[in-house]
Amino acid sequence: MTELSRIWRETEYRYNLIGFKCKNCGNSYFPPRDICPTCHRESIGKMEKVKFSGNGEVLSYTIVHDAPPSFKRQVPYVLALIKLVEGPVITAQIVDCAPEDVDIGTKVHTVFRKIRQDGESGIIEYGYKFVIDS
Predict the structure, then answer these.
(1) Which domains does the chain have, with CATH numbers?
(2) Which of 66, 92, 103, 118 is the most buried (most CB within 10 A)?
(3) Which pLDDT does position 97 carry in this prediction?
(4) Which phi and psi angles does 93 have, rounded to 5°?
(5) Confidence of residue 7 (pLDDT cuts 50, 70, 90)
């Protein structure tokens, strides 16, 4: 169990918004992928790892009122489609605000937060969420 925990903690994708940018067409993607869905074969060997800034804006959102058990303490919460300034659109939770504070076009940025905990004394999973720019 300890080895598995260490591997999980040391995975750089857990703590950063890392994707890939195609050196052939310039499009960026998240999550990371080996082949550009635009260029296909022409992109093989031309995908460059890039750490995104974490800045973006809300394209669409929903307010979750009924969540899985590990998220029950957080309801209601906002789940949004966020377009990063680098181009990719990702799905993420917006935290530290009232649901009515979020709207399409709201500027946001990433923060590192607790995602969930496996039971009362289990492993805590961390990752990215978003907050509204002040």
Answers:
(1) 53-132 (2.40.50)
(2) 92
(3) 93
(4) -85, 140
(5) low
99, amino acid identity: P
Q: Which residues contact 114 (CB under 8 A, 6 or more apart)?
A: 124, 125, 126
pLDDT tens column, 47-86: 999 999 999 999 999 999 998 776 777 789 999 999 999 9
Residue 94 tokens read as 């917006």
For residues 118 and 21, the model is more confident at 21
Report d(CA 17, CA 56) in Å as an integer: 12
State residue 4's pLDDT score: 55
On whether the CB atoms of residues 74 and 51 are closer than 8 A, the answer is no
